[in-house]
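re: that complex we talked abt at group meeting.

here r the seqs, copy pasted straight from the sheet so there may be weird spacing, ignore it
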Amino acid sequence: MNAKRADKLATGILYAVAALVVIILVALLGYILVQGVPEISWHFLTSPALAFEAGGGIGIQLFNSFYLLILALVISLPISLGAGIYLNEYASKNTITGLIRTTIEILSSLPSVVVGLFGYLFFVVQFKLGFSILSGAFALTVFNLPILTRSIEEALANIPDSQREAGYALGLSRWETVTKIVVPAALPSIITGVVLSAGRIFGEAAALIYTAGQSAPALDFSNWNPFDISSPLSPLRPAETLAVHIWKINSEGIMPDAKAVSAGASAVLIIAVLLFNFLARWLGKRLYKHLTAE
Amino acid sequence: MDKIRASLLKKSVASKIERRGKIISLSCLALIILVVFLIFYFVASRGLATFFQNHINLWSFLSGIQWNPGTLGTNGQPAVGALPMIVGSFLITICSALLATPFAIGTAVFMTEISPRRGARILRPVTELLVGIPSVVYGFIGLQVVVPFVRNTFGGSGYGILSGTFVLFVMILPTVTSMSADALNAVPRYYREASLALGATRWQTIYKVVLRAAIPGMLTAVVFGMARAFGEALAVQMVIGNATLLPHNLVSPASTLTSILTMGIGNTVMGSLQNNALWSLAMILLLMSLFFNLVIRYIGRKGKLNNER
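got the structure back, here u go
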């Protein structure tokens, strides 16, 4: 076979492989949306789940997912911001910094089920928080910290040194330069990173099964006292999230319309992840324009 | 005079702020490092208890094929043989990586070399989106589509290594593809130009120059995908059947380390042998993830050396 024919053949095969992959991926997305979107209704999104009969919704699970997401972000953002600042602005390039980076990389590569088990051992058992929103939020924080730290560090590293020099030239200390110049300049990419990580947290289930629990007790949405156990805001109540719900009804199989409910819930999850993705891009661009007056 | 002396010797407000800022950010970093050590300490302290408190032989744990902690096996020892799960995990990881690698690399080559415009406009956004799809959704689709497909095509119950392989294949495909594409994009443009200038066709350039220059990056992508497949819990647990038997073929129900962990931890009592044995499985998982990490670092270092030469 001469080189020209081989080239044609290989190109054809590559086209076929790429087309096949696109078909698989699009079919995947299409399947979820086609199966799930018809299930979504206002009733489905707001009513509580029914364990033994058809017609239940995902209202409480949806609320739990968002509540956990917000708590996890509130805890992990300041920590990873601090860590990112130290790594990029203060840490000198030596072996210890290298070791620290490796440790963070190891944390980010841990299977999420291991993070969940650690959360169970440490927060649920050791700190006696029980299966609760708080345990779940801490487990998600552990899961989120390395990713967020890395994206914040990258965002800071992309700010040119001339910005920092300008700060020093004005007589600002290093910390003031970081907080008043570098972080605001990096804000668009930091926010993009945060929203992208939010998408990952939203769909996480393995880390939550043994921390936030697998039950969603009825909530009284008129009671906003965070210290009352039936209040939606109570941080010590068990809270099954949307992703955990999908897993649970599929592996237990006592709900008669489990398939319909999980199809709808999967579609809601996918749409939420898609929204987070678009939001991340849009917010980043918008903020950048706003801050740089371009 | 003393006033001036005092004001000169006293730290300025700015330097106090500076000091405080540095301490705050350093303690954030220290907290993350502490968490990593806590994870290792806690999982290891539970996982090692099987061997030190319950006096299970490490070798019989790793090579035994009976898993039913709480009862005695045929040899009179507690039946904690983890081999079925270890084999299941490795089999499913290797199979899905073998299946995903050609597709991922083919797509990545298409994205970067054949049709960069379509790659940038269609393939890249789609793969990036799919990286973010929650694993339970993959599990659900596996249950609805893959399991019936396997049952009708290959017989058996449909639950087993093969279904798990298919689900993981689709799951790691986007990750491996986009990382391979990054590796191919990192190959300098003048490599391609030099090859084309020598009269090579596009395929010769891809096969003999670009792919070879990108080998370390693509290996990293594949190992990364394997690490993800090895640690994936719920999607696999939903389709593999969860029978703690040594898999005899690809369509009989089997189990992985992660699937047994997700099922079992909640049903056992803390401190019992059943529970400790599960933590030992978690420890194996932890060590494997560490191992994958080391491999990725090793490949990265090797690749850098090759490029510098």
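couple things i noticed - Chain B touches chain A through 86 residues (CB under 8 Å). The first strand of chain B starts at residue 67 and ends at 72.
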